[in-house]
Each structure stands twice: as C-alpha cells, then as structure tokens.
Amino acid sequence: MSTDHVAFFDTTLRDGEQSPGCSMTTQEKLTMAHALEDLGVDIIEAGFAMASEGDFAAIATITQAIRKPRIASLARAKTEDIEMAARAIQFAGRARIHVFLAASDLHLEYKLKISREQALDLTGESVRLARSLVDDVEFSPEDATRADRDYLVDMVRIAVDAGATTINMPDTVGYTTPEEYGAMFREVRQRIPAIDEKGVILSSHCHDDLGLAVANSLAAIANGARQVECTINGIGERAGNAALEEIAAALFVRGDRYGVSTGIKLDKLYPTSEVLGQIITFKPSPNKAIVGANAFAHESGIHQHGMLANPLCYEIMTPSLVGVSRTHLVLGKHSGRAALRHRLEQLGFTVSREELQQTYYRFVALADRKKNIYDQDLVGLLPDSIRERRSEPVSELD
Ligand code: KIV
Ligand code: ZN
User: Fold this and answer.
1) Which of 331, 334, 335, 349 is nearest to 395 (CA)?
2) 243 CB contacts (<8 Å, ≥6 apart)?
3) What is the biggest distance separating any 2 CA atoms in the chain, rounded to whole angstroms?
4) CB neighbour class for 376 (10 Å; exposed up to 12, middle 13-18, buried from 19)
5) Would the CB of 47 count as within 6 Å of ligand 1?
6) Residue 313 and residue 304: Cα distance in Å, rounded?
7) Among residues 338, 337, 341, 347, which one has the least CA distance to residue 389?
8) What is the 8-class DSSP label of residue 112?
C-alpha cells in the first residue's frame, strides 16, 4: 500500500457505542458493519470482547460476515482480555488485537495504581502475547497527549520492539491542539527510528471535548499519521470522537494541502450516516458538517441568489459528492425574490415581475409568522390568475 494512503479505522461500534443512547444489538452492529464495508473503511473496531457477552458475540458475528475490512477487538493490557479478543476474532479473514494501557501519570497513579515501570513491563508483555496470537497488533498509550513526553517515547519504543504493527496515540480527553498534536507525531517518529524501519503505522484517535477532534486528526495526518480513528456522525465518549465524514471530506476537498489517498467512497457518507441515525434513533444536529440536515441548505436571499447564479459561490462541494440528493434553498423570512421565483418555476408557475413583487410581499408577511414555509403555503399565496396558468412542474409539492 502506498505511503500516502491513510487507513480509516472506524470505531463507531466500539468507542461510538460507548456514548449514551448509542448501544446496539448484535444485529444492529452487523447492519452497521455492512454499511461501513460499503463505505470503504479499512478497519472496523467491532467491540471490546471482554466487556460483555454481547460485545463478544457481536465481534464474532461480524468477523464471519465481513471480509474486506480488517476486524479489530479492543483489549486492556491483561492476559484474559487479549485471549478473549483473540477468540472473538479467530474467524476473521484479517484480524487485529488493539491493546491499550494508560501512559499519563494521572491515569497510572489514580486509575490503575501502578508505577511507570510496571506499565512499561505490561506494555512489552501484552504486545508480545497479542503478537503470539495474531500478526496485526495495535498498541495505544492511553491519554498520550497528557503523558510525560520522554515516558511516552519509552512506552512506544517498547511496544514497537515487542512487535506492535500500529501505534495509536490517543487524545483520550480531547485536550490537545492541532499544532501540539502534530508536533507529538513528528517527535515520536523522529526519536524512534524503528517506527519507519519496521514500517509501523502511526495512528490518531481524537476526542472532541474542545471541538478540535477533526482538526487534530488532520494535523496528525499532516505529520505522518497513516491511520485515523473516527466514528460516523462523530459519536463517542462525552463530546464524541473525530467524525469520519468530516475527515474524509476534508482530505478530498483540501487534497491540495494533504495529498493523501483513502479508500472511502465519498458518496456513501450520507447514506452511512442515515443507517447509523436509524439504528441509534437520533440524527446528527442539523448544522453538523457534511451530514446534517442543513449542511447543504441555504436560506438567506444573498446566498440563494449566489447559489442560483453559480453553486460554487456558497458550496465547496456538491451535495452529490457526499451522497446528499440535492441542495435545499429553504424559503424563509431571509429569502429573496430570486429564490421565490426559482421555487415557483419548479412548481410550474411562471410569474411576471409585477406578480413576483406582489407574491413576495405576501410571502414575507407569512414568513414573519411561520417558521416553515411549505410549497402548499406558496401555492396558497398565489391568486387564481396565476394558479390557472400552471404548467408541468419539474418538482413535486413538498
Ligand atoms: O480514547 C481512548 O484513549 C481510547 C483508547 C481505548 C484507544 O478510546
Ligand atoms: Zn477513545
């Protein structure tokens, strides 16, 4: 695979599922896994085998049904977790064990109550054990962005020497900034030559507590990460994970800056987001980039006029690029005459300048009172003389 290929590691079924209201049954996870396969992700983290019987069953089911993406199970740096993960993925065409262990003093001291030295020993032992069971092992020093940098480098070096094939450096609590996160990737790579010598992949995993998850992931890619961990609609612990659709679209639209390739089929982004929305029964917020209901909607008169003249005025990508069927020119109190005329024409009503002006006054008065203006409302504003002239509409009434 080319060194400019960025692998998409989707963790919707593991980290994503950890967000309130997002738990899924095995059948739902399987449906989602099929959608992720169609989307073109490289790796699916199907769950945390040791967490529950349900998680184990879901991972085992997915490994038997999905063939193209590699299937990963999460495991703590514990023998029983790693062995359970290996059992769950044993029938996968291509499998991975993802071992994680805290790297920050805060986590070591208060959560795990072990010393730095003990954690280094556990790192080597757990990665070696995982490598004895499967040839693809990812190691994550949890809370990497708040860990002492020299200690983080020691931990990563031990994981690489023990045979880790991917090193993921998570911003577990969404604390870092793009410059800082990018610099961390540069530094770790520079200080551990074995990463490049052995072809170890560096990976980002960002949470969105400061709203920087996607920016941080892109900074990691700009600084050598060739795997990015993310979720559909950005679901995940607390404020969520980096949103897959945003990273994929940014890498494409700003290919001039990133110059990397991915296997993501961009026109499957919106359909995949819809599948998830149906499963977890909530959709992304309307203003969510790429997949939100308003991501390709325009209401203000100035924007609508520009859009009608040339969509490039206000859209940096076509809706169809990401699988959205069309741009919406939403008629509301900020809309202008150009959009009103356009919608009337789509509905089969051609109006003169004078008729448009009269209709526009009535439209604005109505829009001041009513949040949503439907096509039926528009037709209701027209005098009989216009309605009688209706020609074949190009668009049905909504
Ligand atoms: O956020 C995190 O640190 C994680 C690890 C398990 C990779 O999800
Ligand atoms: Zn996480």
Assistant:
1) 349
2) 213, 214, 230, 231, 232, 233, 234, 288, 289, 290
3) 86
4) exposed
5) no
6) 10
7) 347
8) I
pLDDT of residue 1 exceeding 60, the answer is no
Nearest-CA residue for atom 2 of ligand 1: 172
Q: Among residues of the chain, what percentage have pLDDT more than 70?
A: 98
Q: Where are the domains of the chain?
A: 7-279, 297-387
CATH fold for domain 7-279: TIM Barrel (3.20.20)
Ligand 1 atom index nearest CA of 207: 1
Q: How confident is the model at residue 315 (pLDDT cuts 50, 70, 90)?
A: very high
Place of tokens 């308003």: 294
Cβ–ligand 1 contact at 205 (below 6 Å): yes
Q: Is-contact 243 213, C-beta < 8 A? A: yes
Angle at 387 between CA 385 and CA 389, to 5 degrees: 80
- Cβ of residue 166 lying under 6 Å from some atom of ligand 1: no
DSSP letters, 186-233, are HHHHHH-THHHHTTPEEEEEEB-TTS-HHHHHHHHHHTT--EEEEBGG
Q: Model-level pTM?
A: 0.94
What's 46-101 look like in SS3?
A: EECCCCCHHHHHHHHHHHHHCCCCEEEEEEECCHHHHHHHHHHCCCCCCEEEEEEE
Given a contact cutoff of 8 angstroms between Cβ atoms, the answer to whether 239 and 205 are in contact is no
d(C-alpha 77, C-alpha 122), whole Å: 6
Nearest residue to 74 via CA among 158, 18, 124 = 18
φ, ψ of residue 321 to 5 degrees: the values are -55, -40
Question: How many Cα neighbours within 13 Å face the side chain of 319?
Answer: 17
Continuous segment of H or E residues that includes residue 239: none
